[in-house]
Structure formats: structure tokens, C-alpha cells
Amino acid sequence: MRFFHLADLHIGKQLHQYSMKKEQEDILNKIVRKAQEEKPDAIVIAGDIYDKSVPSAEAVHLFDKFLTDITELTPEIAVLLISGNHDSPERLNYASEILSKHQVYISGMPPQTEEEHLKKIVLKDEYGAVNFYLMPFIKPFYVRNLWQDDGGVTYEEAMRRILEREEIDEKERNVLVAHQFFVASGEKPETSESEMAVVGGIDEVDIRVLLPFTYAALGHIHRPQKIGKPYYRYSGTPLKYSISEEKHYKSITCVELKEAGSEPVITEIPLEPLRDVRVLRGSLEEVLAQATTENKDDFLSITITDEMEPYQFNERLKEVYSHILEIRVDNTRTRTILTEAEEDFKVKTPLEICMQFFVEMQGREMTEEEEAIVKEVLNEGGLES
Ligand SMILES: [Mn+2]
């Protein structure tokens, strides 16, 4: 049995002010092509299908196209997917009954009653059954109806109890598909800037709950990596979703399961993006001289280091590079400003944070009208603007 493990597609994602529609369309097509070549038995997607809980029509269309291509071009491949913290469980569940007739198995909602269980999909090969347990993203609050003492159950305890109810047969091969923050006796996975940080680490789940599983196909952390054991693994995102991921190697994790009791064989199939994310640094002339047909259309974070800031350096960079994410200046002057800013550091108001975010996303200031709307929303939410 061989399957592809993917996660954190974040369809609809914007990188700074740029839509990533073309890049995402391209990478999904490449995954379809790899599936045609490699013919895995299944494709597992461990949550965060979409970037937003209310995805745009365009984003829904992209994913729809991906599922259609898989089911038409390679109908023998099963697709198994769960919701992540970015997805809406209800929306993801839409049409899941009908889709299961095409071997597309979706689990958007965690069990809601004592009778309900995790969605379990059994696929067979020459060694027997492989049980895939689909565990959508949970917060303890989502599953409070499953037990009497709803107060104060931790993420780890909630996860442990849900898995206990399944009475997993450890003599068989079992695969868990989950989207949580796993740690291995305190050792945390390496995170990036494109994940949502939770303060205080209350969402941590120790990998000891994964003991019954031959392989854990995990999502949530955007850099591909194992956690604790090679067979508990985050596949990472298919594309770089922040500048901090500049040096990541994105890939499809390919998992091969042989007879029960043997360790899975894990390989990575590299994924080449349409547009890479790169960091360039140096004097303006040095940065301009680095331009090649290869990189001039990449997503770039540029830092220029000239002591004397050259005339119209922004314009000169934009003439050469088409997709600049940010331009920074690092010289004595800006370092002094930074130190001064730290000295009179003040906590920003919610409105200031929204306005700054808006500028980063849209590349312009809010209009008065937009500012008024944000103020109203903040006030309604009980946040002083
Ligand atoms: Mn994610």
C-alpha cells in the first residue's frame, strides 16, 4: 500500500499583496501529474484545505478542479481528507456523502455524540486491511458532549479519549490523519511565520497518544518534518507561504506500508513551485546584478544595505523584479531608528494593528470610510479601537 501524504494546502492564500491562485493551480496540477505517474492507492490531506473558513468561490473552484481531476484521471486512487483549524467543518463536509461514492472521503466534523465515532476508511492490499482514522482538527470544546466532565479537559486528554473510544486493533496497520500541534516529550516541531501561533502552548499533544498507529499523517506545521519518530510526520505545505520558509524544501510525502509490524518506508517527492520565495540582500547595485531570468519573477524579500540610500531605489527594484513582497533598508540610519523605536516602544491599539495589517495586505492606507467600518466592528466585538 502506497499513499501520498499532503497537508496545509491553504487554497486561497495571499502572500502579502499577491494572490497565489496561479501558483496553487500549478502545484495542484503537478500533484495530479505525480499521482498519475506514481499511482498511489490513496492521497491523504491532513487539514487546512482552505486558507479561510469562508473560502472564495475561486478557491472552492480550484479545489473542486483538483478533486475532479483525481477522480477522472485516476479513479482508482482514494482521497481522504480532514478539516484543519483554518477550515469550516460544516462547509468542508458539504456533499461528502455523494463524494464518498467516488472514493473521496471527507471528515470535517469531529464526533458530536457518544454514539458517533471517527470516520474510519479501510483500504486493502495483499497484506490485508489498512485502517485510516480521520480525525478533524479539534479543540476540547468541540467534543465536550462526548463525556460528562467537560470542564478543563486538555487538548491531549481530549485526543486520548477520542482515540480510546475507537478500540483500535494494534495487530492491524493503522494510519491516523490529524491536524494538531504534536510534541515529543517536550520537543516541539519547527514552526514558520505562516502558521497561527497559540500563546502558552495549551494546544500541545504528546505523541504518546499516537502509539497505536503505524503512521500518523499530520498537518498544521508548515515545514516538512518528523516528530519523535520517523513515522509520525508533518508533510508541510506544498508551497512556501511566508518569507521565513525561504529555505524549506517542499514535497509530497510518499508512504509505503508493507506487512503489519514493519516500519513504513517514507520518501519525498520534490515539488517545484511556479514562483519561488527568495531573500536578496546587498547594495542596490548588487541586488540588481543578481537578477536572472530564473529569479526576476520570484516572490522576493529585498534588503538593501547602502549607507547612502540611492535615488528612487524602490522604483529601480520594481523595474527589474516583478513580485516584490517587501523592500527593507538596513544601514546605520535605519538601525538607529529601530533602536529609538524600541526605546519608546508602545503597545499598539487594535485599530492600529488592523490598519498596519491592511497596508501590508493591500499596499495602501485605509480610506476614512474603511477606517470607520473597522472601528465599528472593533467596538461591536468589545475591543476599544
Ligand atoms: Mn496550516
Verbal overview:
With about 375 residues, this protein is of the alpha/beta class. The protein folds into two domains: about 270 residues, Purple Acid Phosphatase, chain A, domain 2, CATH 3.60.21.10; about 55 residues, no CATH class. It has ten helices and 19 strands. The strands form five sheets. Strands 6-5-4-1-15-16 form a six-stranded mixed sheet. It has a six-stranded mixed sheet with strand order 7-8-9-12-14-13, with no helix packed on it. Helix 5 links the parallel strand 8 and strand 9. The termini are far apart. About 35% of the residues are buried. Manganese (II) ion (MN) binds next to loops.
Q: How do the strands and helices of this protein lay out in sequence?
A:
Layout: E1 2-6, E2 14-15, E3 18-19, H1 21-38, E4 42-46, H2 57-73, E5 78-82, H3 89-93, H4 96-100, E6 104-107, E7 119-125, E8 128-135, H5 155-164, E9 173-179, E10 181-183, E11 204-206, E12 215-219, E13 225-227, E14 229-234, E15 251-256, E16 265-270, E17 277-282, H6 284-289, E18 299-304, H7 313-320, E19 323-329, H8 332-343, H9 350-362, H10 368-380
Parallel strand pairs: 1-4, 4-5, 5-6, 8-9, 9-12, 10-11, 12-14, 17-18, 18-19
Antiparallel strand pairs: 1-15, 2-3, 7-8, 13-14, 15-16
